[in-house]
Each structure stands twice: as structure tokens, then as C-alpha cells.
TrEMBL record, chain B:
Keywords: ATP-binding, Coenzyme A biosynthesis, Cytoplasm, Kinase, Nucleotide-binding, Phosphoprotein, Transferase. Homodimer. One of its GO terms (molecular function) is pantothenate kinase activity. It is found in: Cytoplasm. The keyword Transmembrane helix does not apply. Belongs to the type II pantothenate kinase family. It comes from Astyanax mexicanus. This is pantothenate kinase. Residues 1-72 are annotated as: Disordered. GO terms for cellular component: cytosol; nucleus. Its EC number is 2.7.1.33. It comes from the Eukaryota. The gene is PANK2.
Length: 779, 438
């Protein structure tokens, strides 16, 4: 570990031995197949594909047909069976390390490679040739070389499509150095400026169509080569360090050196460089190495920026991504390139950088070799548990992280079972941001939530152990989970930008990924089962009492029912404390906790007025928790919609997250309700009530990454109402989401800090009913 | 009182003298040229006689001659006639030496004016660093009804204090003349001119002056080597030759001025132009880097070294990476993939000469200017590019390289043009403003 302040420790770390146990780096090698390698000037990137066995909690319905029509009172008998099954999923592993480790790494891979089907390794990068013999000898795999540029583009397309917050804008002096960009529904066309020893400017128009439209010989090699001639520093990284300490104004001739001030009529400010190195031509004096390095850096960055802008303008492109070893996460070059682009385009074009820029070649080479598995037909997701995340880029701010970059960096991507697409009802998919608060920028909120998640960790560990009482080693695994997640939280405290923008959603998702990592696929399965059972018993009673009310009264009771149901939430600490200590916390009590009207956000009157009008054609309902919430809150509400003649699509999670009801659980619950309620039964039979998966396993909701089937159903049914329920889906995310149809967002704020922030108290109610303006609705 | 630098009884007197008494003298054709067709109005029959036919167009501007001459007399500024362009590296000075001075005028000429005229015209070098580019001198030029020679002088901007001292010593300020100056130095040193030499500057925009100067010089040069030329067969070094270019219909035109830095202008008409962009990688960068890399100290020295060097030892070429052409992207093997790219490697750093480094610097800067220029031409949809500025002075290497690069990468679409008075147009443009100053 580097000592603080030791700026040249980074280079020393190159000589260190591997600091992580190799099996934590080359994970799951036993199940690996298909290798690809990208060997650059100093870094090697290895890619492979593995199959991962996951324990997955499956629910299966008991056969209830025998008891059909019989009063269900077998108290102790659970509703469904929970079994933990092994499921095989696909994962992509990418590992980046210094070339010095290449032999050690190849040895390790050789020793652990079991799969004998693998015969070739795809290779790209300048070093692929140099290390060809070594690889072939060590791994007994045939090296199959792939074109560098096409690998780069393939890799770039892949990360842009599959990793949210892949691209970012760099702002040196902002609160957060990184401003991440939303995933766009269409990533094409874009310009990729790859700055290696020279510069290549590539226009990418589609998955398979790209063209090198230009380039420049003034690139990273020029900085390095000229830098080595002008100074005593011979290493690229050290030259950059040198540059970061210099003053270019001592070497460059500025506009003010010629004009005495600005060249006003042209709008050229005095500080602008008129002639790079112009002072070294006229002054007979020594120039400091730092100053010359800085001047060189500015000269090259400005030149590249200028050419990139000229090409972008000529081809009418405004998305320009920068990559290559000149950029590779170096804050100095990201800053100078950003500055240059801003200057030359007057802010019309933003310089974009990529979190996984260093992996593009390896990803592309891998994809070329894996075409028969057709990875592009799936959606992939970054596994936060297995990925290192973006390093801190300020060497002086975080020497520890800098030292780590000298060793190993990992990216893991899980193949998602479902292909993910946009919700077709988003008003503007390209500007949609799921998350309400960006914790990367909001330091106060970040502090609070990091603290909150750390506080809740004990409870989560306890819950995890309790969910696997029959397995003696569960406690040990749970402890490993605790360490891993705590470490992630610590990392995020220092580098909130590690996985893109830090949000409550990403904190929750990271926790789920870590739980899965240690085989706790569904710690709440038994709780959900118990709560579903309990709630089902009250269903008919609740429905009956609702039927006795007048229409007006009933509408209000239905809404209050959903809200009361939503109080039952293990995801919120305030509630889970109560639930833990007082399991009898009942539905009626919950209603009493609710804030009286007027609510914190209260559009109830408009909603009721709307209900007096014609029925909606089809409502899409994103449901939240198991138990009281879904059964006593959501189903009666859905029942009323169905009776009005509105079709209902219930969207629930594909995989488990906290006590959220999963799609397979919801199927059983629906069956059971249908068995006792003819309204639901008919609707199911007539397919006026259907269940779909959201494609997500998160307590939050990203409307830009939803199951393709859901999107199809929504479109086919002419959905004209979207209901989003719960804090995770309607407050932490989507609070500001603009839809092209009517929408209801309802939630109970079960967190006093958040309630206070929104100007309310704990158990405040948000009831947001929005109707898009006519003009927007026509789209 | 003094007028036009000559002792005279009064304004009316001067006019009468000029127009009537000295009339025949003044109207005597200079080199066959009618005096009325002066200044931007250009030459008349003379041009028709031995100049290219296109010069006809200028006649249309020269009517009605008599009237114009009258107004010229009234507004004609007093001698001496200077135009100055104070750049980041060099000061460019143009001086009109009247050759039609009558004996009477000669006698009346004040001492300081005479002394300046003699000093400038009898030397070709001033101090250690001032130089008169004799080969560029435009003799028999008619300017505002006076016939004379236009001289082109340059000295380093660093020497400006010495120049001001000389102005003071020669009592320049006593002439009550306006000094028209452009370039950044006109602004930066304005106070110095006032305090050190008691001179008032008329500050002029450098790009305005540049364009005026280019158009003017191209219009008045009729004899001798052509002002505007290009390289024929730029992609075949053995057949590559300078050829005169007819700049009759110059618009639209991309004007690339390579001084210490570079400005690129799109010119659509005499007074409609815009600065498209610029780059800080210019002549100053070439010389600056050469000084640091080779220890040389002058532009000439740097160029001379470059002419003896080999840039391919310093640069990494496409063929160094791919073994030949990179066909997938249509990149020829000889193209530079990375300027100074070979210098990343210690053995290669140890094996190159200073000459190689100078050559690589020249090639890097020149190609980069070519590349930016080409992109601007495409963006502005302009096919003709005129390169000016002192970076091109005695720099055939760069000119041929620019001609080659533009032709090759545009597949013959773009044409690189050059002007013989490459660095002096700003100063000429400043001189022309003298008429408007009085």
C-alpha cells in the first residue's frame, strides 16, 4: 500500500507482486470457456466467459384443486413451497493488469483451466504479436488475431448499450468530477476518437457500419516522444505527472504576449495560446521541464480537440467519445481535451469518456469469438459485486486507489435472462433519468444514505442467516457478505462515481448483487410466504367491507388500502424495526399511521374526478411488496379497475429483492385470489388481468430497462394509465419521470430523513396523479 | 507649414502646385502606366500590354480618373508612408519611397524625412537583425498619384525598443505623421510608441489589413515573377514545379496566415470574411521546438538543419506498425502514424540527429496545418486555399508539403496557392489605411 503523498509510488507498485489472491481475480476459471486477450503497450486485458451456478429460490404452488370451494382454514399450511435450486447463468469476466504480470497470469490460468473445448484465444492490440508464442506455449491455445479497430468499436457499442452510466463528462472543478450520461435508446451515430500513439477518428453508424473518417499523427506518441526528448522523464505516466505541475504560460506565446491583452474584435481572450512553444523561440533562457511538459500537453490536447470538432461538424455528429492510452482515465488529459472541445465548439459538443474504456478492445475481441453464442441478442448488466469500479483519478487525493491501479482491475457482466428495452410510454426516453437524487452530486444525501445502509447491514446479515437456518455454514457466508458490502460502501464513500452515479437504487442493487454472490438469493422468501398467507385470509373480508361503501367512499378506501399496505416494507428501516418487534402490526393499525389528508402530495381530488369519467383502456401497475400490500391493497384496487372495464397488467420483479413480490409468487397469489373471487377469476380467464415480469430484480425501477415482453404487451393493449407504487419505485426512482399517458405515483414515506427533505413527516403520503398535456399526448 | 513633408506656403498652394504647376511632371506615365490608375485601381494599358489578359477588370475601377486624382490630392497623406505589422515574432514594415521627387521638393524636404529615406533605401540590413527583402521590392509603383518603390523590411519584435530609439534619434515625431500599425504589437506597444518615440499609432485590425494587403499586392504586381503561384504535380516530386496562378476571381477563398500561430479566414468578397479558426501550432512552434531540440537560434538555421534531416527516423509511419499500407482504412504505408512516435523508444532517441529532429518538427507542424486547413475547406465548402505568412519564407519544403498534402488527401479537389510577398500583407494593408487616416 502506498504511503500517503508519495506521488511516485504508482510506478513502484508496478514491481509489486499480485496483491489479491489470484482466485479472486480470475474468478470461476473452472467454468470458463472462450478467451480473448488485448495486449496494449503496458496493460493486458483478458476476457472470458463463464457459466455461474446460482442458488435461486423458486416458489411452486401446491395443488389446491382438491380443496377447491372448501373454506381454507388449515392455518399452519403454507401457500406455496419454497425450494432453493441451482440455476446456471452466463457471466463475462474482464481483467486488466500490467503486462509485467502476463506470465504469472498465464501460468495461473493454465493450472485452473479445466474446459478442454476451448481451442483458440482471440487476440488484439499491439502486443498480441509480441506475446503470441508465449500464450500459445503456456495455454496451448491457438492465438487468433483480430483487427484492433473493429474490436474497439464492437466493445464500445457493447458497453454503451449494456452499461447504464457508461459515458461521462469530465468536470475538473465541479463537486463531482464525473457527470454520467443516461443510456440512450439509440447509441448511433457517434464519433470515437481513439488517441493511441496517433489519433484515429472513427464514425460509427450502426452495429456493423463504421468508417475511419480521419486522424492525426499528433497523438499520445507525440506527447511521449517529444516529452522524452525535451525532459529527463521517459515514462508516459510520469510525463503526465510532470505536466500537471507545470505552467504552460512560461513556454507558450499567449494572445496577451502579442496584444498586451485580449484580441477583442475576434473574441480571443488574452490567455489563449497564440503560439505553442512560441516563447522558447525568442527567449534565451532555460525552461523548466514541468513547464515544457505542460505546454506539450496543451498543444496536443488542443490540436486533437480541434480536429475532432472539425470532423464532428463535417459529419454533423454531436456525440464524441474519447479513448486510447492518452486518455485512459488520466484526469489531466480528460481535462485538457474537455477544455479544448468546449473552446472549439463553444459548448455545442461535449467530450465524453467511458468508464470501461480500457476494456473495449478485449470486449470486442471476445465478442468476435463468441458470435455463435450471440451475446448481442441478450441484455447484460454490470455486476457490482464482482467489478472494481472506476478508480479515483486524482493521484494526490487518493494514493491508495492509485496504487491499486498498478495491480488488477475487474469488470463482470451478467447475462440477463430477459432482453431489456424502454417503456414505450416514456415521454422522452433520451432525457429520462430513473433516479430522483444523484448522490454523486448531493453530498449531504450521500452521507445520510451511506450511513443508513451501513446501519442496516446488521439486520440484513441476520435476516440472511435466518433464511438459511438449515445450512450451518450460512453464518460464515453471511459474514463474508457483510465484509464485501461494507467494503463496497467504504469504496463508494471515497469514490461515489465508481459505478456511475451513486443513487439509492445503486446502493440497493449493489447489496442484492453481494447477497447473490454469497448465495443468499432470497433472504425474505419465508417472510414473504408467511405474510402472503396471512393477508390472503383477510382478502374476502376486505373486499366485502369495501363493497358496502358508497362509490365515493369506496374510491377513497381503495387508495387508503394501497397506502396502508405499502406501510409493510422490510426495505425501510423504520418499518422493519417495528415489524421485527411487533409482527402483529396489523392492516388497520397501518391505516392509522397514515397521514390524514391533505397529504404531502395530494392529487386525490383530480383522480376521483377522472374516475367519474370514462374507464381507462388498460392500466399497467408496477407492484411493490408481498403480503398486505399486494393482497389487501393492490388487488382490491385492481378489482375495482376491472369492474370499471379497465384491463390490468400487473408488472412484478423477475427476481427477488427484499420483500418485493416476485412474478412467480404473484402468479400463485393471483391463482389463490381467483379461487375465492369470481371477479378476478373471470378477468384472468378472459386475459383482462395479466401478469408480466419487469425484467428487474431491484427494489427500484428503471423504466429504460424493462422486459421486452412487457413493452410489447403495453403497446398492444393500448395502455393509457401507469401506476407506480412504493418508495423504491415512485420516490427514489421515477418521481420526476414524465410519461406520455396518465400516471399515478403513490407511496408512503417510511424514512423520516427523506420525509423531512420533502417537507413532511414520517408516514407522509405521496399521491401524484399526472396527465400529460394534449400536445404531448399526441406523440 | 509643412505638408506632405515638404515646405509649402499653404494648403492651397500645395494643391495648386501638385495639380497644375507640377501637373505634367506628375502625370508623366511611370513605366508606361497612366498615373491615374494608382492604388487599388491598379494598372491600365501597361497591364494589358505585358500582363495577363485578366487584368482588364481593373480598368473598370479606374474611372473617372481625373476626378479621383483630384480627391486624392486633397486626402493624400504627408510623407513618409509606412505600414507596420507588429507580430509575435517579427515586425514587418513596408515603406513607400517616392521616386518622383522634384528638385524643388528635394530641396524642401525636411532633414529628418530625408534621413529616414536615405537610411532605409541605402541599406539592406539594419543593425544585426533588420533585413530589407530586396527581391520583393516593388519598383515603379504608383500609389496615390505618386510614383516610387515599395520596400519590404522586417526585424524581430524583440528589437522594437531599438527601432523606437532610432525613431526618436531621427526625430520621426517632428514629421507629425500618422503611423499605421497592425498586429498585436500595435496594441501591446502603443504606449511605448508614445512614450519612447512620441509617436501616435493608428491601430488597425490585422485580419482586415491582411486581406486588403493580399488583394492590393496581387492587383499591382504585373511584371516580374508572378505574385500568386502553385505547385504543379505536387504528388510527383520530380515533376513538381512552380506555376503562376491567375487570382482573377479569388472568391471564395480560404486564407491561411502562418505566423507564430495560424489564422484561417474564409474570404467571400473584398470586405466579407470570417475567421474560421486558428491553431497555436505555427511558425513559433516550429522555431520554438527546434531551438529546444537542436540548440539552434534562428529560423534560417532551423530550416537549414531540417533540409538535411530525415523525419522518418523520428516519426512512426503506418508501415512501421502494419508493415505496409493499412488497407482497411486506406492509409498508405508512408503516412505518418505518430509524429515523434519513434522517440518513445530510447534506442531510437539515441540514434537520431539534430537535423532529423528539425525535419520532423517541420513536417509535423506543416502537416498539421495542412490537415486543419483541409477540414476547414471542407466545412466551408471552399476549394482554393492561399497560404501566407512568414513561416513560408524561404521554406520550399513546407510549401511543397502543403501542396502535396492538400492534393493527396482531397484527391485533387483542393489547390494550395502561395504568394511571393508571403509575410508582408498585413503591413501593406496597414499602409493602405494611411489614406483614410488624414
Amino acid at each position: 500500500m502506498a504511503t500517503p503523498g508519495g506521488t511516485n509510488r504508482a510506478s513502484h507498485s508496478l514491481d509489486k507482486s499480485i496483491t489479491l489472491p489470484p482466485d479472486e481475480i480470475f474468478r470461476n476459471l473452472e467454468n470458463a470457456k472462450r478467451f480473448a486477450i488485448d495486449i496494449g503497450g503496458s496493460l493486458t486485458k483478458l476476457a472470458y466467459y463463464s457459466t455461474v451456478q446460482h442458488k435461486v429460490a423458486k416458489v411452486r404452488s401446491f395443488d389446491h384443486t382438491a380443496k377447491a370451494g372448501v373454506q381454507q382454514e388449515a392455518d399452519g399450511e403454507p401457500l406455496y413451497e419454497i425450494s432453493v435450486q441451482e440455476e446456471i447463468t452466463a457471466r463475462l469476466h474482464f481483467i486488466k493488469f500490467e503486462n509485467t504480470y502476463i506470465e504469472t497470469c498465464l501460468d495461473f490460468i493454465k493450472d485452473h483451466l479445466v474446459n478442454t473445448e476451448t481451442k483458440v484465444i482471440k487476440a488484439t492490440g499491439g502486443g498480441a504479436y509480441k506475446f503470441k508464442d508465449l500464450i500459445e506455449k503456456k495455454l496451448k491455445l491457438k492465438v487468433d488475431k483480430e483487427d484492433e479497430m473493429s474490436c474497439l468499436i464492437k466493445g464500445c457499442n457493447f458497453v454503451l448499450k449494456n452499461i447504464p452510466h457508461e459515458a461521462f463528462v469530465y468536470a475538473k472543478h465541479a463537486d463531482s468530477e464525473f457527470r454520467f450520461q443516461n443510456t440512450r435508446p439509440d447509441i448511433f451515430p457517434y464519433l470515437l476518437v481513439n488517441i493511441g500513439s496517433g489519433v484515429s477518428i472513427v464514425k460509427v453508424e450502426s452495429e456493423d457500419k463504421f468508417e475511419r473518417i480521419g486522424g492525426s499523427s499528433i497523438g499520445g506518441g507525440t506527447f511521449w516522444g517529444l516529452g522524452a526528448l525535451l525532459t529527463k522523464t521517459k515514462r508516459f505516466d510520469e510525463l503526465l505527472q510532470l505536466a500537471s505541475k507545470g505552467q504552460h504560460t512560461n513556454v507558450d506565446m499567449l494572445v496577451k504576449d502579442i496584444y498586451g491583452g485580449a484580441y477583442g474584435s475576434l473574441g480571443l481572450t488574452g490567455d489563449l495560446i497564440a503560439s505553442s512553444f512560441g516563447k522558447s523561440a525568442t527567449a534565451d533562457k532555460e525552461f523548466s521541464q514541468e513547464d515544457m511538459a505542460k505546454s506539450l500537453l496543451h498543444m496536443i490536447s488542443n490540436d486533437i480537440g480541434q480536429l475532432a470538432c472539425l470532423y464532428a461538424r463535417l459529419h454533423n455528429l454531436n456525440r464524441v467519445y474519447f479513448g486510447g492510452f492518452f486518455i485512459r482515465g488520466h484526469p489531466v488529459t480528460m481535462h485538457t481535451i474537455t477544455y479544448s472541445i468546449n473552446f472549439f465548439t463553444k459548448g455545442e459538443v461535449q467530450a465524453l469518456f467511458l468508464r470501461h474504456e480500457g476494456y473495449l478492445g478485449a470486449i470486442g475481441a471476445f465478442l468476435k469469438g463468441a458470435e455463435e453464442d450471440n451475446p448481442n441478442q441478450y441484455s447484460w448488466g454490470e455486476n457490482y459485486a464482482g467489478s472494481s469500479g472506476l478508480m479515483s483519478v486524482s493521484p494526490d487525493l487518493n494514493p491508495m486507489q492509485r496504487a491499486r491501479s498498478g495491480t488488477f482491475d475487474m469488470l463482470e457482466m451478467d447475462r440477463l435472462e430477459r432482453q431489456l428495452v424502454n417503456l414505450p410510454l416514456l415521454q422522452d426516453p433520451s432525457s429520462y433519468i430513473p433516479d430522483t437524487v444523484d448522490l454523486t452530486e448531493d453530498a449531504l444525501a450521500r452521507e445520510y444514505w451511506l450511513y443508513c445502509f451501513e446501519e442496516a447491514l446488521d439486520g440484513v446479515v441476520k435476516r440472511a442467516v435466518a433464511s438459511q437456518k438449515d445450512q450451518p455454514e450460512a453464518a460464515e457466508r453471511a459474514e463474508k457478505f457483510r465484509q464485501k458490502y461494507r467494503h463496497k460502501l467504504q469504496t463508494l464513500r471515497h469514490q461515489p462515481f465508481a459505478y456511475g452515479s451513486l443513487t439509492v437504487r445503486s446502493l440497493l442493487d449493489t447489496r442484492e448483487h453481494c447477497l447473490n454472490e454469497f448465495n443468499f438469493p432470497d433472504p425474505y422468501s419465508k417472510i414473504k410466504q408467511r405474510e402472503n398467507d396471512m393477508a390472503l385470509k383477510y382478502y374476502q373480508k376486505v373486499v366485502r367491507s369495501l363493497e358496502e361503501l358508497s362509490w365515493e367512499q369506496r374510491q377513497f378506501a381503495l387508495v387508503r388500502g394501497i397506502l396502508a399496505g405499502n406501510v409493510f416494507d422490510w426495505g425501510a428501516k423504520a418499518v422493519s424495526d417495528v415489524l421485527e418487534s411487533d409482527p402483529e402490526f396489523g392492516f388497520e393499525q397501518a391505516k392509522q399511521q397514515l397521514q390524514e389528508r391533505p397529504w404531502l402530495v395530494d392529487a386525490y381530488n383530480q383522480w376521483v374526478e377522472r374516475l367519474k369519467g370514462p374507464p381507462h383502456k388498460c392500466a399497467l401497475f408496477f407492484v411493490d411488496n408481498s403480503g398486505m400490500d399486494i393482497i389487501l391493497g393492490v388487488f382490491p384496487f385492481v378489482r375495482e379497475l376491472l369492474l370499471r372495464g379497465t384491463e390490468v397488467v400487473l408488472a412484478s420483479n423477475s427476481g427477488p429483492a427484499l420483500n418485493d413480490v416476485t412474478n412467480s409468487e404473484l402468479q400463485i397469489v393471483t391463482e389463490r385470489i381467483a379461487a375465492m373471487d369470481p371477479v378476478i377469476q373471470t378477468a384472468v380467464k378472459e386475459e383482462r388481468l395479466i401478469l408480466v415480469q419487469s425484467g428487474s430484480s431491484s427494489p427500484c425501477l428503471d423504466l429504460s430497462r424493462l422486459d421486452k415482453v412487457l413493452a410489447t404487451v403495453v403497446r398492444e393493449r393500448g395502455t393509457d394509465l401507469v401506476i407506480i407504487e412504493g418508495m423504491g419505485r415512485a420516490i427514489h426512482t421515477n418521481y420526476y419521470a414524465m410519461l406520455s399517458c396518465e400516471s399515478l405515483k403513490l407511496a408512503v414515506i417510511k424514512n423520516s430523513w427523506l420525509a423531512e427533505r420533502l417537507g413532511g413527516k414520517i408516514f407522509s403520503v405521496v399521491f401524484k396523479y399526472e396527465v400529460p398535456s394534449k400536445a404531448q399526448g399526441l406523440h | 507649414m509643412e505638408l506632405n513633408g515638404y515646405h509649402c506656403a499653404g494648403e492651397g498652394c500645395a494643391e495648386a502646385e501638385d495639380e497644375d504647376t507640377a501637373g505634367p511632371e506628375l502625370l508623366r506615365p511611370a513605366g508606361g502606366e497612366p498615373p491615374c490608375s494608382s492604388a487599388a485601381a491598379g494598372s491600365g494599358e501597361k497591364a494589358m500590354a505585358d500582363g495577363p489578359a485578366h487584368r482588364e477588370r481593373r480598368i473598370s475601377n479606374s474611372t473617372p480618373a481625373r476626378q479621383r486624382l483630384d480627391s486624392l490630392k486633397k486626402s493624400r497623406p504627408p510623407f513618409p508612408w509606412f505600414g507596420m505589422d507588429i507580430g509575435g515574432t517579427l515586425v514587418k514594415l513596408v515603406y513607400f519611397e517616392p521616386k518622383d521627387i522634384t528638385a524643388e521638393e528635394e530641396q524642401e524636404e525636411v532633414e529628418s524625412l530625408k534621413s529616414i529615406r536615405h537610411y532605409l533605401t541605402s541599406h539592406t540590413a539594419y543593425g544585426k537583425t533588420g533585413i530589407r527583402d530586396v527581391h520583393l521590392e516593388l519598383p515603379d509603383l504608383i500609389l496615390w498619384g505618386r510614383k516610387g518603390s515599395l520596400h519590404f523590411i522586417r526585424f524581430p519584435t524583440q528589437e522594437l525598443p531599438a527601432f523606437l530609439q532610432m525613431g526618436r534619434d531621427k526625430h520621426f515625431s517632428s514629421l507629425h505623421t500618422t503611423l499605421c500599425a497592425t498586429g498585436g504589437g500595435a496594441y501591446k506597444f502603443e504606449a511605448d510608441f508614445r512614450t519612447m518615440a512620441d509617436l501616435q499609432l493608428l491601430k488597425l485590425d490585422e485580419l482586415d489589413c491582411l486581406i486588403k494587403g493580399v488583394l492590393y499586392i496581387d492587383s499591382v504586381v504585373a511584371r516580374g515573377p508572378p505574385e500568386c503561384y502553385y505547385y504543379e504535380n505536387p504528388t510527383h516530386p520530380e515533376n513538381c514545379q512552380q506555376k503562376a496562378y491567375n487570382l482573377e476571381n479569388p472568391y471564395p477563398l480560404l486564407l491561411v496566415n502562418i505566423g507564430s500561430g495560424v489564422s484561417i479566414l474564409a474570404v467571400y468578397s473584398k470586405d466579407n470574411y470570417k475567421r474560421v479558426t486558428g491553431t497555436s501550432l505555427g511558425g513559433g512552434t516550429f522555431l520554438g521546438l527546434c531551438c529546444l531540440l537542436t540548440g539552434c537560434s534562428t529560423f534560417e538555421e532551423a530550416l537549414e538543419m531540417a533540409s538535411r534531416g530525415e523525419s522518418t527516423r523520428v516519426d512512426k509511419l503506418v508501415r512501421d506498425i502494419y508493415g505496409g499500407d493499412y488497407e482497411r482504412f486506406g492509409l498508405p504505408g508512408w503516412a505518418v502514424a505518430s509524429s515523434f512516435g519513434n522517440m518513445m523508444c530510447k534506442e531510437k532517441r539515441d540514434s537520431v540527429s539534430k537535423e532529423d529532429l528539425a525535419r520532423a518538427t517541420l513536417v509535423t507542424i506543416t502537416n498539421n496545418i495542412g490537415s486543419i486547413t483541409r477540414m476547414c475547406a471542407l466545412n466551408e465548402n471552399i476549394e482554393r486555399v492561399v497560404f501566407v505568412g512568414n513561416f513560408l519564407r524561404v521554406n520550399t519544403l513546407s510549401m511543397k508539403l502543403l501542396a502535396y498534402a492538400l492534393d493527396y488527401w482531397s484527391k485533387g479537389q483542393l489547390k494550395a496557392l502561395f504568394l511571393r510577398h508571403e509575410g508582408y500583407f498585413g503591413a501593406v494593408g496597414a499602409l493602405l489605411e494611411l489614406l483614410n487616416s488624414s
